[in-house]
Model the fold of this input.
Amino acid sequence: MSLNSRIAQARAVIQPRLETPPQVALICGSGLGGLAEHIDAPVTINYEEIPHFKTVGAPGHKGRLVFGTFAGQQVVAMQGRLHGYEGNTAEEVVFPLRVMHALGARTLIVTNAAGGINTDFEVGDVMLIIDHINFTGMNPLTIGAEQELYRFPDMSHAYTSELRHKALAAAETCGMALRQGVYIGVRGPSFETPAEIRAFRVWGADAVGMSTVFEAITAASLGMEVLGLSLITNMAAGIFDAPLAGGEVLEVSEAISQKLECFMAKLFADL
Ligand code: HPA
Done:
């Protein structure tokens, strides 16, 4: 079945349950699913109910779409995203984004948990993604030639500068320091070696994580405006002499959740 037919089937199940189409899609990263709890008059649809949606396995990811209003915007939040490291292809990872776009979303706010590579960063910092390096070896636009889709998006302005300015203003209003930097996406799921992190630093990367680049590439190909945010949940391998475990993610997001909620509310109100 063609990609467009699969998107149409998924949309056909969702659309009758919505009164108003979403304008903004929010992809909640690890530990950041709580943002979706602030959506008013929510309509929740589990991934299992939607044709062609795969289920999620990452810790702290629920696996549902939440539709409703947030700070005056019609939003759809993905509470639980898919990852390449769960055995999903890049195309499968972005299928929900394609469906959210088909439902009406033209702006994407994508969040993630990441390791800090830039040694000026601290655990608990939030980084505005200004650009990315896709080091996964995969690309969501690698699909059979018979499928109709736009394959060659310009990535020079994938993370829209207008949205970045709005994010900086929202952060200032909420007293939240916002770092800016380059995100490098890796496939995982093992953490990086210290040698890899040193190499990534030389390449100009400030934070590393196992998501986001596929969604940003797809959004660019669909002409969507994109804002990317990384929550620095740990410093990357080799910076401190302590093993990386991944368990910190939920604690770190809990610690900054109030400022993040203020920031998100201001940001959405200004979209
Ligand atoms: N590396 C890769 N992905 C991550 C990390 C990390 O250090 N922290 C959170 N996600």
